[in-house]
Design goal:
heterodimer, A: alpha+beta, 4-stranded antiparallel sheet, 11 strands, rod-shaped, B: alpha/beta, 5-stranded parallel sheet, 8 helices, 12 strands, globular
Chain lengths: 418, 224
């Protein structure tokens, strides 16, 4: 649940609770005040009755009182203490019951005890309570609605910088930049958060850059010694009187040096893919490029007796031509390198996909690992970086790549961007 | 040919010099921008071998200097900065070729000879080796007055061999020249073997000489 929602929910629950309790108390207080007022009036009436009786030695007639009803009942020698009760009140000439309040008292006249009950309607109090309840209710609803909207508006506005920062964190890669929100952040906490994020991001970027530079520098530094070894070997094999055994040893050194060189070049290329901005994009006709590559690889295909089948639609993608070339080179050489003699290679280009399907070992490769660095087939003499390079180039130009093993074919599917 | 090698890495430079002087080429060298300028002011060369990664990073400066002075020398850049940008700026500044470290000496020689040939005969010339005549312009090969048809790769190999005639050429160097890193090493040796077998057969058809000699375990030697 979102923070604003949670906060809103909590504050509305609390406000509603407080309002309900307050309304109850309010009701009770008004009721009490109302009763007290009626009681005072009843008391006064009772006083008047008592006064009248004491003065005239007889009970007044009922009609003497307008809103009240006075009931006088002889009760013999009993004595009822004076008290108030809530009782129904029925107005004369009407059958509707209303709330009423009664005062009961004992009066002695001519040696007989009478209970005097004066009942008064509580209608006016009830009416008052009704009106007050409506007002309170309306106010409560207004309050809750306004709390809801204020929370929503204010919280959303307050947390806006947070969401901007969050979005940037989500999209953060060591190669990207943290873009600051245009308007300054007013909330101190968020301003601090931004500072912290900036510091962290810069640190990460710096470290990442250092690692990359290190890889770059290390690979470059290796090139000259490699060149020296190579040239010394080239010179060494010119020497007279080398035996066949020595030549074989030298050949192994050559092979190892070549592998090392390729590994080094692949590493340099990976660093370059990471470093180079994807800005040098131009529309490249994939169909033409693939056809040209197929021509380049024709010889290798025929030597391994691999049947090449192509279904190519006209499709262009926006890509740096240099990286596009690398991408296709790697896809082709991967499909040929890991193919078997007499196998097949199908290339399908539609407006949505570019698919390379090839035969090879009759077993699915581990989808999780296939694009990893230095993950390679047992028999492969490659650097183990070919598919990593493919994947990195794809990522750079927002092409999604996936691998499937279906009908004995290894399929590499590139989802071309719109 | 007279070469100026501008390379500060002693071991590499010595290898290059020894590989080239064996064929009667004259090699001079220097290790920095200033001495290179001094040499260029006095002497003329056929080709300058220029390492971009000089200690004072002045490889490209020297190239600019050569071009500014209107010197005729061909320039081949050898660089450890195996980067596209270097290559592009080098070629844009008028270098004739670019070779990334590490390279095989045979490859370097083939490139230098190709450039030298292109420059000195306006790209229209004939290579002769023994009874083999190659017309670079039309890419036709005539052996003992009989034209033979070579595939693109066979033609490539033949030129490479002739440029490095008399030398032992490793199959690694040959594989690098023909395919770069497109194929597995073990595969490429088989492919080379097939190509060479065919080329040898075609050459032998009309020539009395078997030019291509196998050097056990390591590669080939092309000689009369």
């Amino acid at each position: 649940m979102k923070l604003a929602q949670q906060y809103s929910r909590a504050s509305i629950i609390v406000a509603t609770g407080v309002l309900i309790i307050a309304s109850l108390i309010f009701y009770m207080v008004i009721n009490y005040v109302g009763n007290a007022q009626i009681d005072r009036a009843l008391n006064e009436e009772m006083g008047e009755v008592i006064h009248y009786v004491n003065k005239n030695q007889q009970f007044p007639r009922n009609v003497d009182f307008d809103d009240d009803q006075t009931i006088i009942v002889p009760i013999g020698n009993q004595s009822i203490p004076q008290h108030f009760i809530d009782t129904p009140f029925i107005e004369k000439g009407s059958h509707e019951e209303e709330d009423g309040r009664a005062m009961i008292s004992t009066l002695r006249l001519n040696g007989v005890n009478y209970s005097v009950t004066i009942i008064q309607s509580k209608e006016s109090t009830a009416y008052l309570i009704g009106i007050i309840s409506i007002i309170t209710g309306v106010l409560s609803i207004l309050l809750i609605v306004s709390i809801f909207f204020t929370n929503r508006y204010i919280l959303n506005k307050l947390w806006q910088p947070f969401y901007i920062l969050l979005l940037q964190l989500k999209n953060f890669t060591p190669a990207s930049n943290i873009i600051l929100p245009d308007q300054p952040i007013k909330t101190d906490e968020f301003a601090e958060l931004r500072e912290a994020i900036l510091t962290m991001a810069n640190q990460v970027k710096q470290d990442y850059q250092n690692v990359k530079n290190f890889a770059d520098d290390a690979s470059h530094e290796m090139l000259t010694p490699l060149a020296i070894i190579n040239s010394k070997l080239d010179t060494l094999i010119q020497t007279e009187n080398l035996t066949g055994k020595q030549y074989l040893l030298l050949q192994d050194i050559y092979a190892a040096i070549t592998k090392l060189t390729r590994l080094n070049q692949a590493l340099l290329l990976l660093v370059k893919i990471d470093n180079k901005k994807a800005e040098n994009k131009t529309e490249q006709n994939l169909k033409q490029i693939i056809e040209k590559k197929a021509e380049d690889f024709k010889e290798l295909l025929s030597m391994k007796k691999i049947a090449l089948a192509m279904q190519l639609e006209n499709r262009s993608v926006s890509i740096d031509p240099y990286f596009g070339d690398i991408l296709l080179n790697n896809l082709f050489s991967n499909a040929i390198r890991h193919n078997k003699d007499g196998g097949s290679l199908n290339i399908i280009l539609t407006s949505e996909h570019l698919i390379f399907e090839n035969t090879g070992i009759d077993k699915a490769l581990d989808t999780n690992k296939i694009f990893n660095r230095f993950e390679k087939g047992i028999t492969s003499e490659g650097s183990g970086l070919g598919l990593t390079i493919v994947k990195n180039v794809c990522e750079k130009f927002s092409i999604q790549i996936s691998y499937q093993f279906k009908d004995h074919l290894h399929r590499f599917i590139l989802n071309l961007p719109k | 040919m007279k070469l100026l090698i501008v390379e500060d890495e002693d071991a590499l430079r010595e290898s290059i010099i020894s590989y080239f002087t064996e064929d009667g080429n004259i090699c001079e060298y220097c290790t920095d921008f200033k001495s290179a300028c001094d040499k260029l002011a006095v002497y003329e060369y056929d080709c300058i071998l220029l390492d971009l990664g000089l200690p004072d990073n002045s490889g490209l400066e020297l190239l600019k200097y050569v071009k500014k002075k209107g010197k005729k020398e061909s320039v081949i850049i050898i660089s450890a900065r195996n980067s596209l940008d270097d290559k592009i700026s080098g070629l844009n500044l008028g270098a004739d070729d670019y070779l990334a470290k590490p390279f095989h000496l045979a490859e370097l020689k083939a490139r230098i000879i190709a450039i030298h040939r292109r420059k000195s005969f306006n790209g229209n010339n004939v290579i002769e080796y023994g009874d083999i005549h190659i017309d670079i312009g039309t890419m036709t090969v005539v052996v003992n007055k009989e034209p033979i048809t070579l595939t693109k790769k066979e033609y490539d190999i033949l030129l490479y061999f002739i440029a490095n005639a008399g030398k032992v050429i490793s199959k690694t160097a040959l594989a690098d020249h023909l395919w770069k890193d497109e194929i597995d090493l073990s595969d490429s040796y088989d492919f080379i073997y097939t190509h060479i077998k065919n080329l040898r057969k075609k050459l032998q058809m009309h020539s009395g000489t078997d030019y291509i000699k196998s050097v056990y375990g390591i590669g080939y030697r092309f000689s009369e």
